[in-house]
Amino acid sequence: MEFGQRLRSLRKERKLTSKQLGEKFKLAESTISGYETGARKPDIELVKSFAHFFEVSTDYILGESNEREKEKKNINSAFHDYENITEEEKDYLDLQLEIFRKMKEKNK
């Protein structure tokens, strides 16, 4: 499955129209349609934003993997082993979680 097909599938899972998705990203409905049909290609930053919004890995949204939550599994492994990591590592994970939450709130 290619990026456009994945984007359309993820959008429909969330029960969003292409217009609604475009509004969330400040993009025209025709731009979203162009991505979904393959007529247009998003830049890497937008791909990352879509992946974060849909809570999937960039590999998944690009069609390179069928594992939707690859990144989450790695994060879950880190938290599973949370008591065995250094204070510096804990601070880093806390900062990354804070950044993620701010990005998620911004994309609502």
Using brief descriptors, characterize the structure shown:
mainly alpha, 7 helices, 0% strand, 108 residues, single chain, 434 Repressor (Amino-terminal Domain), Lambda_DNA-bd_dom_sf, 68% helix
Structure, explained:
This protein has helices at 3-13, 18-24, 29-37, 44-54, 58-61, 70-80, 87-106. The protein is mostly helical and 108 residues long. The protein folds into 2 domains: 3-61, lambda repressor-like DNA-binding domains (434 Repressor (Amino-terminal Domain), Orthogonal Bundle), CATH 1.10.260.40; 70-106. Helix 1 crosses helix 3 and helix 2 crosses helix 3. The protein starts with a helix and ends with a helix. Residues 7-61 form the HTH cro/C1-type domain. Keywords: DNA-binding. InterPro entries: Cro/C1-type_HTH, Lambda_DNA-bd_dom_sf. This is Helix-turn-helix transcriptional regulator.
Compile the SSE list and pairings:
Elements: H1 3-13, H2 18-24, H3 29-37, H4 44-54, H5 58-61, H6 70-80, H7 87-106
Helix pairs in contact: 1-3, 2-3
